[in-house]
Amino acid sequence: MVKHVILWTLKDEFSAEEKATIKQGIKEGLEGLKGKVPGIVDIKVNINGLESSNADLMLDSTFESVEALKGYSVHPEHVAVADSKVRPYTKIRSCLDYEA
């Protein structure tokens, strides 16, 4: 199994209300990839961080293998979500991939 964890910080220009809507869209988009992208074992997006957090949301996903993760990164369904719901709104992305 391979874990793929991402922390994002949204751009400062968005209001709290806009950020809530953006986070919900990212959550729905990414979690909706399960069953569409081969090799995803589990995929969850946490949008309810505590005030002590210095990131706005987190992707916590598990893949069958390194190859499955590579396939996910270029899969058209994933690219469409990333290009429409994630990249336009985020300013910082930190990623950690590891074998579990």
From TrEMBL:
It comes from the Bacteria. InterPro entries: Dabb, Dimeric_a/b-barrel. SMART domains: Dabb. Residues 2-98 form the Stress-response A/B barrel domain. This is Stress responsive alpha-beta barrel domain-containing protein. It comes from Butyrivibrio proteoclasticus (strain ATCC 51982 / DSM 14932 / B316) (Clostridium proteoclasticum). The lineage of its organism: Bacteria, Bacillati, Bacillota, Clostridia, Lachnospirales.
